[in-house]
Design a protein that fits this description.
The protein is of the alpha+beta class and about 350 residues long. The chain has eleven helices and 13 strands. It folds into three domains: about 110 residues, Rossmann fold (3-Layer(aba) Sandwich); about 150 residues, D-amino Acid Aminotransferase, Chain A, domain 1, CATH 3.30.470.20; about 60 residues, ATP-grasp fold, A domain (Dna Ligase, domain 1, 2-Layer Sandwich). The protein is globular, with a radius of gyration of 20 Å. It starts with a strand and ends with a helix.
């Protein structure tokens, strides 16, 4: 049987470059295990932080080292690696802007080759928090109160204070991993946070802060997706920021989450609704706020290309549901082929 050549696309031009490398390393290892090795041949493609694509030995070296590699290509313009023409199915694991926002998905769509994950629309809506929240509203999904803030004509702090109060969260519309996110409790901090978020994106949002537990659910599938068990993130920091997410020991994952069965069932149902609302495909992680005192569940966001390291929430949720990491990688590739044949 001829092996399927999997183009593993990682790195990228975003602040989540290093996380992408870690995710790619875990996927590469999963493709090499006994159950997958006879079916798949790995072709790695590494995108440097300034956008240059590297294939072959350079990409392999980055996978093996787990760290970004600086290559002197100052005299080279961007060129599409010739090895890309050999790929049967792409597995993009580019987190953040220029990776999970529909840009790369558009390129892969034009190449007319199957790829893992959502298409252009699902990726773009899943990345843009304002478009995402609009889609959730149309689908009738419960959310925290928020305000859209255009960076060019920002709303006055008085209006934000009157509408949302303190504490509140200021976020760039198009970034992941809590980059550029601030939790504020005063006018001075609010002004600083808005300026900070505006340095990342011309569109922002401000959300009301609530006292709630943070729980997450993983979705897998295309037209008939399935939802995993629910997990909870526990941490001691003020909120789940970038440092807490990616520093060992800063956050603990509780899987399954210690919540009532009825609440877990509701979260799984809402996860599938959110998946459909943004036209996602293949995979997604859906994040929620659970208020124990009232029993209320509010959707926070959907991530159409979540962290994929061996210790990330998405694969761990599926492992607890009965799908191992290598099986998960295999299923995602098969779902990409299924969607392409359509």
């Amino acid at each position: 049987m001829k092996k399927l050549r999997v183009g593993l696309l990682f790195g990228g031009c975003s602040g989540e470059h290093e996380v992408s490398i870690r995710s790619a390393g875990a996927i590469a290892q999963a493709l090499s295990v006994e159950e997958n090795a006879p079916k798949y041949e790995l072709l790695p493609f590494y995108i440097q932080k300034h956008g240059i694509w590297q294939a072959g030995e350079v990409a392999q070296k980055v996978l093996q080292s787990g760290t970004p590699l600086q290559v002197d290509d100052s005299d080279n313009r961007w060129q599409f690696p010739s090895q890309a023409m050999e790929v049967d199915v792409w597995f993009p694991i580019l987190h953040g802007p220029n990776g999970e926002d529909g840009t790369v998905q558009g390129l892969l769509t034009l190449m007319q080759v199957p790829f893992v994950g959502s298409g252009v629309l699902g990726s773009a809506m899943g990345m843009d928090k304002l478009a995402m929240k609009t889609a959730f509203t149309q689908a009738g999904l419960p959310q925290v109160n928020y305000m859209a803030i255009p960076g060019i004509f920002p709303k006055g702090c008085e209006e934000i204070e009157a509408t949302l109060g303190y504490p509140c969260f200021v976020k760039p519309a198009n970034l992941g991993s809590s980059v550029g996110v601030s939790k504020v409790r005063s006018r001075q901090k609010l002004e600083t946070a808005l300026n900070s978020a505006a340095s990342y994106d011309r569109r922002m949002l401000v959300e009301a802060g609530i006292n709630a537990r943070e729980v997450e659910c993983a979705v897998l599938g295309n037209d008939t997706p399935q939802a995993s068990v629910v997990g909870e993130i526990c941490f001691d920091s003020d909120f789940y920021d970038y440092k807490t997410k990616y520093t060992d020991g800063q956050a603990q994952l509780s899987i399954p989450a210690p919540i009532p069965d009825a609440v877990a069932t509701k979260i799984r149902e809402l996860s599938l609704q959110a998946f459909a609302a943004v036209d996602a495909a293949g995979l997604a992680r859906v994040d929620f706020f659970y208020q124990k005192t009232t029993g209320e569940v509010l959707i926070n966001e959907i991530n159409t290309l979540p962290g994929f390291t061996a210790t990330s929430m998405y694969p761990r949720l599926w492992a607890a549901t009965g799908v191992s990491f290598p099986q998960l990688v295999d299923q995602l590739i098969q779902l990409a082929l299924e969607r392409y044949k359509g």
